[in-house]
Fold each of these.
Amino acid sequence: MSIDETRITRAILAAALRDWEEISSVDVAIVGAGPSGMAAAYYLSRGGLRTVVFERRLGFGGGIGGGAMFLHKIVVEPPADEVLRDVGARYAEVEGAPGLLVLDAAELMAKLASSALDAGTKIVHGVSVEDVIFRRDPLRVAGVVVNWTASELSGLHVDPLFVSSRAVVDATGHDASVVEVASRKVPELGIELRGERSAYSELSESLVVEGAGEVAPGLYACGMAVARVRGLPRMGPIFGAMLLSGRKVALEIAGRLGAGRTTP
Ligand code: 48F
């Protein structure tokens, strides 16, 4: 078989453009492939909603990969073990610390990503969300403005593309960069960014899950983005609230948009 370079190029172009055409209008656009974004993507796709994840870097997992100070273990507490079992991630109880579960960072990243992909999520790497689309009557966030991360880094003036969606999820972590841009550039949404507070792990683990949800019509937050938006403490290297807040946002969106099998 001869491998002609032009055929390689055309195969990639045709498949990529087909995908981009599909994702130019979706049910849910998730920004960030960290633990909260991947958990949300998994449950949304499992419920039958057309879901895309835009991730500015070239990998999965966000803060999972670095563990705590580069130690390759992740700590989670119940009931987040329900999510671990749903995605097939193996974990162990921590000796002498009842209620804490430990697992490999690589295991969590890989299983979250493969479960979301198997459920039908489309994940696009190297793409940054730089803005939102908004509409009036009724006032709402109606999609995201995307560009290659490479364009952003180059400093060249390259105009973006648009993706319309029925819901946008900010899963960008500590920056809450999507909610931040919406609060600044669509002031009529009335979003107040209260800013993340110092560490208080136990409190933050429950408040982040409680606070996850709709921030403005059409715009949702999960994971550490919730801490910046709602003025909550950080919790450091414990990941239960990331998984549970992602699941909570998915269930809330599925309830609003109408989806089938998202319920855990
Ligand atoms: O930071 P990240 O892991 O967010 P998370 O899901 O989890 C936080 C924990 O990792 C940890 C913690 C709790 O235990 O404190 O930090 O809330 O993942 C966020 C992902 O979003 C990407 C970023 O590269 C990362 O992979 N991201 C951020 N901004 C953008 C983005 C953007 N504007 N466009 C696309 N991707």
Amino acid sequence: MTELSERFDPGFVWGVATSAYQIEGATTEDGRGPSIWDTFAARPGHTYLGHTGDVAVDHYHRWADDVALVRDLGLGAYRFSIAWPRIQPEGKGPVEPRGLAFYDRLVDGLLESGIEPWPTLFHWDLPQALEDAGGWPERETAERFADYAEIVADALGDRIRHWTTLNEPWCAAFLGYGAGIHAPGRTEPAAALAASHHLHLAHGLAVPRIREGRPDAQVGVTLNLYAVSPADDTGRHDDAARRIDGLMNRWFLDPVLLGRYPEDVLRDVAHDLPADLVHDGDLATINAPIDFLGINYYSRHVVAAGAWPGAAEVEFVQRDWPKTASGWDIDAPGLGEVLAQVHRDYPPVPIHITENGAAFDDALEHGEVRDEDRIDFLESHLSVLADAIDAGVDVRGYFAWSLLDNFEWAEGYEKRFGLVHVDFDTLERTPKASARWYGDLARRSSTKEHS
Ligand code: FCB
């Protein structure tokens, strides 16, 4: 068997990922305005035990230590997100220089440590002022995002090569405005669809604004894609699988990469789709050429037709299957299926896996976390990734989620995804066994020194 590290090119990008609200804390410092996640988490019953990101893991003050952790692991890239409410506390208008200065220091710190910064401009923390004006279901929010993107690109563009506009618009739109389990906690199907279109538009409007005057800029967007399969092979559940693949994957891939919404999904959602949502020219804007596609992969959905004859509803089937602490099926082959689908059905585009990882019930014992289950998870997914590359899929990088244990949205601090353990009382950081394993792999692969 070829060693895993030998299966990736020396130029392959090895990184770790985080996001602003999940790690920064300091939510009222240096002029930061409130975001929808501050508001949502502060309302009782929305997050596990009422946890909030007020302190998170205090990265705002400990960023230099965290950069040192990435450097010591030997990783070449760090994906983080920029908090829009730190840059424009009201979501539009005046820029808060102290907010920009924070990311300026972070970017310089990363570069001094030989780590390439990979910022994402929107990882769900919409300024509350914009939500008060209607949020993502309002077209105007897309315009505001493009302005904000330009402000950040002007400030940091001399040092940033890879830009990601959005993280997982599916979650922002459908969990935030449809299911209501993420901020802003609305349960309005039409608003969720409108939000998804305006997120796409925000991406499309931002791409040229980031590129302007920066011919080297590489701009992409990150989508969360799922493997989807029918509950059995009788054919009875195929339509359920088509629907879920349509809504979770193709509704996002098609406009960005093909410049159209999938016809079958348009039919599925016709009764909820607001009239006049898609204006002439929107799809051409959204279809702006991108330099890379970011894919976040976590699991597979197995689906079945609703129990009632003729019912369109879909049921998510619980398989008796190994799971992470989040209850998600551990399904490495699904990553291969997702990559094969993108490769087969869309024009060629370089891919980066911008998130992949797992929560487990880690125990810190005698100063150590021996998270063999996380190592197995990473190893199995990376081996599937190497197979996909061998099969011709153009994957150029991989970012493990996450550098640190952090605020896992509605799950609060209950789920630990970090390669580095954080004691949430003392905020002390302790690299887990998986961090060492991953760092060694990245180092061996980049230098091709084999043990
Ligand atoms: C993804 C999010 C990320 C993290 C992981 C576990 O959907 O992008 O912030 O919460 O899931």
